[in-house]
Amino acid sequence: MRLSICLLTSLALAATLQAQRPPASLLAASDRIKAEAFRTHGAYRDLASLCDGIGHRLSGSPELDKAIVWAQDRMTAAGLKNVHTEPVMVPHWVRGAERAEMVAPRAQPLHILGLGGSVGTPADGVTADVVVVGSFAELDRLGAAVKGKIVLYDVPYAGYGATVAYRFSGASRAARWGAVAALVRSISPVSLDTPHTGVMAYDPTQPKIPTAAVTLEAATQLRRLQEAGVPVRIHLVMGATTLPDAPSANVVGEIPGTERPNEVILLSGHLDSWDVGQGAQDDGAGCVISLEAARLIQALGLKPRRTIRVVFFVNEENGLRGGDGYLAAHRADLAGFVAAVESDSGSEKARGFGLDLPKATPEARAAALAQLQTFAPLLERLGAGRLVLGGSGEDVSPLVAQGVPGLGLDHAATHYFDIHHSEADTLDKVDENDLAQNAAILATFAYALAQSEVTFR
Ligand SMILES: [Zn+2]
Question: What's the predicted TM-score (pTM) here?
Answer without folding.
Answer: 0.95
